[in-house]
Structure formats: structure tokens, C-alpha cells
């Protein structure tokens, strides 16, 4: 593990990532100065320089512990039935295994729950990128009438303020008795940043040169991924995502079209475009696509192999691939090697504040 110190004038303690003590210029934040920083180890295969930690929300143990509780607490919904973990289940690599998610009153949304893993390497959040930060994403579902069902952010804070145990934990984490929705977002986001996946069989083969780490089929699949199958046009970098939005021909088969990124950008070129998901843990996060229409990785490969469903806004890189049956299988085998380590330690709390 790399160990170095970044020395900047008037340092601000941000956190420890992969053994690197990160300091950012400016005044030291009291919430970090008074606590031990949270030491987050970045596994093999991930680029720790791309890990996103805002200057105003340094990783600390107290915030991570608080965020862990809030993430699993069903009282974080209007009727005490839904928590963040309802749609982001640890045993399912922090997805829910459903085509679209179910929220308060068993209402169903229109999109699949993406994995919460490796969100610290991502910038804008949600399928349509409507949340500019992980902090914003962490509180967004709370006031969604279909998801957690709170009327507004004030209602969220008012409910937390009725739980004495949480009031104490917020004071320990943020140094103030006044709880804000920003504090809620910072705590949950801090916990989510600890959900890491790396050190996969693919990483051991690609970075450590362990020829026995993956099968011959997966090796052929790797070559296809970066060549004939063209997967790397969007799924590149150590988190296998370009962090951009693409129309890949999903939802144009006669059903009502989800316009995706267009909801946010209002740019016509973004109609039907959705964010490129990470491929880390991909074989554990079925079903696939923003509407969960594909049950298996083979289904996904078949979609791309056929060039998607043509529409006026489809990205021009989506073309028929002409993969053979054996090539399709090799590609799936390569994708299965992207299951890694770093998130399996997370368990549901045995008790919650009272």
C-alpha cells in the first residue's frame, strides 16, 4: 500500500485513502480535527486519485458510523417501512435484484436500483445524473413520494430530532446539536464511500500478471472487450465507466420512452440517454439496464451484438458487433471476473438509536 504525505500550505484534513493522508489547503474543519479520520483502503485495480471526497465532508469514523445506521434504518421513511438498504441490499452487491425498485406503500418506480458500490469514484449520481454529488444523492430519495415518502427535508430532520440517540450521534459527528439535511447527506454519503470493490480476479491478472487468475475463455473475452466488442468505448478506466450518458437503444420497442438525461439537461441529444454504470460486481447486480429489462449478462451482450433498437437519438458507436456464439460466452466470462473485494464486511446494524 502506497504511503505518502501531500503537504499543502494551511492544510485541511480530508481523510486517509489507500494509505495516503490527504490534506487540502484552507482552514481545518472542526469536525475532522476533533475525530480520528476514517482509513479507507483502496484495493488493487482502482485509481485512488479518482476517489471523490469533498473538501467540506472529510471521511471520519463518527460520520461513517452514523451513515451506516441511517442507511439501514427504516425510520428514514415516512411510514417506517423503507430504508436505503431496502433497494441496496448487501447480499445482492447493494442492489435489490428487481427490474424496478419498490418504495413506500409498495409503489414501484420506473428505474432499477444501481449498485451503491464504488460511488466514491463517480461524479454525478442517479441514472440521469440529477444529483451533482453523493451527498445530494443520499438525501434525494427521502422526499420522493414513491420512495421514502417524506413531504420535505424539514420532515426528515423533524423525525430524526425526535430520536434522542440520533441527536447525540449527530453532535458527535458534526459538533453541533442542530441537525440539518446537509448533515444527513454527509453522513450517508460518508458511509457509501466505504463500499468499495477492487482486487478482482481480473485485477490480479491485469495488474499482478497472475496468468492463472482467470480462465482462457476470460482472457479471450478481455481481448474482445477492448477490440471487436467495443465495450471499452464507454466502460473504461479502473471503475469501468466513462461517467457519461448514452442512448444505447433501450426502451424504443414501442413502449413509453423514458427520456433519461433529458429530464436534467433539456438538451435534445440527451433524449433516452442514461449514465454508464460501473462493471464492478456486474455478475451480481442483475437485472440490467435502467429499467431492469435484461435478466442475464448474456441478454445484455445479445442487445449490444444486435446494435440496440435504432432511434433518432442513439449513440453512433452502438453498431452490430457480429460476435460468434463462443465470443459472446467469452465476453460474459470476462465480465464475471470483475467481482472483487472491499464491501463484503458491511452488515446490517444489530440495533438502532432510541
User: How many domains would you count in the coordinates?
Assistant: 3
Name the poorly predicted regions.
1-34
Structural class per helix/strand content? mainly alpha
CATH class of the largest domain: Mainly Alpha
What's the total helix number?
12
Ends distance: 40 Å
Extended strand count: 5
Which word captures the global form?
Answer: globular
CATH homology superfamily name of the largest domain: Cytochrome c-like domain
Topology of this protein?
Elements: E1 11-17, E2 20-25, H1 30-33, E3 39-40, H2 61-72, H3 84-87, H4 134-139, H5 153-161, H6 164-174, H7 181-192, H8 201-206, H9 216-225, E4 245-246, H10 262-265, E5 274-275, H11 297-305, H12 325-336
Parallel strand pairs: 1-3
Antiparallel strand pairs: 1-2, 4-5
Helix pairs in contact: 2-6, 2-7, 9-12, 11-12
3D architecture notes:
The chain is mainly α and 354 residues long. It folds into three domains: 11-50, no CATH class; 61-192, Cytochrome Bc1 Complex, Chain D, domain 2 (Orthogonal Bundle), CATH 1.10.760.10; 201-336, Cytochrome Bc1 Complex, Chain D, domain 2. 28% of the residues lie in helices and 5% in strands. The chain has twelve helices and five strands. It has helices spanning 30-33, 61-72, 84-87, 134-139, 153-161, 164-174, 181-192, 201-206, 216-225, 262-265, 297-305, 325-336; strands at 11-17, 20-25, 39-40, 245-246, 274-275. The strands form two sheets. Strands 2-1-3 form a three-stranded mixed sheet, with no helix packed on it. The chain has a two-stranded antiparallel sheet with strand order 4-5. Strand 1 (11-17) and strand 2 form a beta hairpin. Helix 2 (61-72) packs across helix 7 (181-192). The longest helix has 12 residues, at 61-72. It is globular. The two termini are 40 Å apart. The model is unreliable at 1-34 (pLDDT under 50).
Amino acid at each position: 500500500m502506497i504511503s505518502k504525505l501531500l503537504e499543502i500550505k494551511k492544510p485541511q484534513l480530508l481523510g486517509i485513502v489507500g494509505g495516503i493522508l490527504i490534506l487540502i489547503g484552507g482552514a481545518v474543519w472542526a469536525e475532522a480535527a476533533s475525530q480520528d479520520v476514517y482509513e479507507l483502503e483502496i484495493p488493487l485495480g482502482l485509481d485512488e486519485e479518482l476517489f471523490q471526497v469533498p473538501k467540506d465532508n472529510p471521511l471520519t469514523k463518527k460520520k461513517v458510523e452514523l451513515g451506516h445506521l441511517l442507511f439501514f434504518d427504516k425510520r428514514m421513511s415516512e411510514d417506517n417501512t423503507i430504508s436505503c438498504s431496502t433497494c441496496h441490499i448487501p447480499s445482492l452487491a447493494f442492489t435489490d435484484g428487481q427490474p424496478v425498485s419498490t418504495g413506500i406503500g409498495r409503489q414501484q418506480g420506473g428505474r432499477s436500483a444501481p449498485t451503491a458500490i464504488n460511488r466514491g469514484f463517480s461524479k454525478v449520481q442517479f441514472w440521469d445524473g440529477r444529483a451533482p454529488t453523493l451527498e445530494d444523492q443520499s438525501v434525494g430519495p427521502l422526499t420522493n413520494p414513491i420512495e421514502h415518502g417524506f413531504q420535505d427535508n424539514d420532515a426528515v430532520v423533524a423525525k430524526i430530532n425526535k430520536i434522542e440517540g440520533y441527536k447525540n450521534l449527530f453532535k458527535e459527528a458534526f459538533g453541533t446539536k442542530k441537525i440539518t439535511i446537509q448533515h444527513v447527506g454527509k453522513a450517508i454519503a460518508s458511509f457509501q464511500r466505504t463500499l468499495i470493490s477492487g482486487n478482482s480476479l481480473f485485477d490480479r491478472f491485469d495488474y499482478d500478471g497472475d496468468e492463472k487468475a482467470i480462465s482462457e475463455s476470460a482472457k479471450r473475452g478481455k481481448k474482445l472487450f477492448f477490440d471487436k466488442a467495443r465495450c471499452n468505448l464507454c466502460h473504461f478506466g479502473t471503475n469501468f465507466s466513462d461517467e457519461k450518458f448514452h442512448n444505447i437503444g433501450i426502451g424504443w420497442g414501442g413502449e413509453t420512452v423514458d427520456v433519461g438525461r433529458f429530464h436534467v439537461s433539456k438538451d435534445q441529444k440527451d433524449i433516452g440517454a442514461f449514465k454508464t454504470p460501473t462493471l464492478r460486481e456486474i455478475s451480481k447486480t442483475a437485472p440490467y439496464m435502467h429499467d431492469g429489462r435484461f435478466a442475464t449478462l448474456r441478454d445484455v451482450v445479445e442487445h449490444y451484438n444486435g446494435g440496440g433498437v435504432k432511434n433518432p437519438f442513439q449513440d453512433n458507436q452502438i453498431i452490430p458487433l457480429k460476435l460468434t456464439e463462443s465470443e459472446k460466452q467469452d465476453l460474459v466470462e470476462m465480465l464475471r471476473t470483475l467481482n472483487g473485494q472491499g464491501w463484503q464486511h458491511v452488515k446490517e446494524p444489530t440495533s438502532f438509536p432510541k
